[in-house]
TrEMBL record:
Its main location: cytoplasm. The record marks 180, 241 as: Transition state stabilizer. Mg(2+). Can also accept Mn(2+). Belongs to the acetokinase family. One of its GO terms (cellular component) is cytoplasm. It is found in: Cytoplasm. The gene is ackA. Its EC number is 2.7.2.1. This is Acetate kinase. GO terms for molecular function: acetate kinase activity; ATP binding; magnesium ion binding. Catalyzes the formation of acetyl phosphate from acetate and ATP. Can also catalyze the reverse reaction. Pfam families: Acetate_kinase.
Length: 398
């Protein structure tokens, strides 16, 4: 069976059509600038040239219509008819406390998704638009919602409640939710597979280090803590997000710099992190190059980033007592030899011993720890789309 995986942003739509018999991608693409001038579908069927379809798209429904046309096109398409799409898996950012697992989408679920908008006002509305568009164009195809937060619903209360007045949790659902759940789940399962161990019997720390970054403690296959929180702003220093700071800094800078709530939000989410510290870039390739040429603030940004990751690893090792594997994934985790080395350096005291030669790889699956390392260190390219497709297949087969 073929499963279409859809990930809708406010003006973008990413998709993959996956043949679940062999888990191979048969077509994938990206729609950009939905609702704006210059909107385009970039489509590629595996084994064929990429095509650009430039057409006005006033909304996600029009975008999806063009994607479906591309998929069945007789020249550059991948399938003969839409009947060859057995189900659709939608990435949904926030499932609140309602969704601890992926779910078959029906009217009740749509209602619950709408109730979660408050928690993710930027992300959930486009996800919902994507689902609505699919429902309109493929009314008879089953659809499954796969949530970024669901994997973390196993986190115990003592780890998800903030030390704030308890009523704020009851009234507004203010608690740690965590994100990147699909990725943490995928790479932890993959790590167990590579190590030939039962996921239920091992403890893993996963580091999803991309533009957004989070660390997760996984005990017996279940998330027990993660660095992101009520929103993706908590935790590590990221490309442009501050991560943890003293909360008193916020009212202080609002007063000093005369900032509104929106402006301070923008400062913390878009102008901080390694971009804020270095003043040059949020991209680790730029930072590593600049640091190598002696740019002190680029070096400082890298130091801050790596120190934060180290602290979470240390905290999670002590929390779980025993750790079998440490996994690096996402753009930085998969590609930055330098960052992986810098994070692991000095962690020998807790059984993390990286092998410099083995670590010299980019973008592929590998074990990079020394033979003597009590903790296996792995690099695993994430594959959220495949995880979504697997969940979708499992749910519709139920
Ligand atoms: P997201 O999905 O959160 O947008 P990605 O997981 O694609 O992010 O990661 C993007 C980041 O990965 C880039 O900002 C860049 O810093 C980093 N990156 C990609 N390739 C390399 C590389 N070869 N060396 C160092 N960092 C890299």
């Amino acid at each position: 069976m073929n499963i279409l995986v859809i990930n809708c942003g406010s003006s973008s739509l990413k998709y993959q059509l996956i043949n679940m018999n062999n888990e191979e991608v048969i077509a994938k693409g990206l729609v950009e600038r939905i609702g704006m001038e210059g909107s385009v579908v970039k489509h590629r069927t595996t084994g064929k040239e990429e095509v650009l379809i430039e057409e006005p798209m006033k909304d996600h429904k029009k975008a999806l219509e063009l994607v479906l046309n591309a998929l069945v096109d007789s020249n550059y398409g991948a399938i003969k008819s839409m009947d060859e799409i057995g189900a659709v898996g939608h990435r949904v950012v926030h499932g609140g406390e309602k969704f601890a697992n992926s779910v078959l989408i029906d009217d009740e679920v749509m209602e619950a998704l709408n109730e979660c908008i408050d928690l993710a006002p930027l992300h959930n509305p486009p996800n919902i638009m994507g689902i609505e568009a699919c429902k309109a164009l493929m009314p008879n195809t089953p659809m499954v919602g796969v949530f970024d937060t669901a994997f973390h619903q196993t986190i115990p209360m003592a780890n998800y409640i903030y030390p704030l007045p308890y009523e704020l949790y009851e009234k507004y659902g203010i608690r740690k939710y965590g994100f990147h759940g699909t990725s943490h789940k995928y790479v932890s399962l993959k790590a167990a597979e590579i190590l030939n161990k039962d996921i239920e019997k091992i403890n893993v720390i996963t580091c999803h280090l991309g533009n957004g970054a989070s660390v997760c403690a996984i005990q017996g296959g279940k998330s027990v803590d993660t660095s992101m929180g009520f929103t993706p702003l908590e935790g590590l220093a990221m490309g442009t997000r501050s991560g943890n700071i003293d909360p008193a800094i916020i009212p202080f800078i609002m007063e000093k710099e005369n900032l509104t709530v929106d402006e301070v939000n923008e400062l913390l989410n878009k102008k901080s992190g390694v971009l804020g510290i270095s003043g040059i870039s949020s991209d680790f390739r730029d930072l590593e190059e600049a640091a190598a040429e002696g740019h002190e603030r680029a070096q400082l940004a890298l130091d801050v980033f790596c120190n934060r990751v180290k602290k979470y690893i240390g905290a999670y090792v002590t929390m779980m007592c025993h750790v079998d594997a440490l996994v690096f994934t996402a753009g930085i985790g998969e590609n930055s030899v330098f960052v992986r080395k810098k994070i692991c350096d000095g962690l020998e005291c807790i059984g993390i011993e990286i092998d410099e030669e083995l670590n010299d790889i980019r973008g592929k699956e590998a074990i990079v720890s020394k033979d003597t390392s009590p903790v296996a260190i792995l690099v695993i390219p994430t594959n959220e789309e495949l995880m979504i497709a697997r969940d979708t297949l499992e749910i519709i087969n139920k």
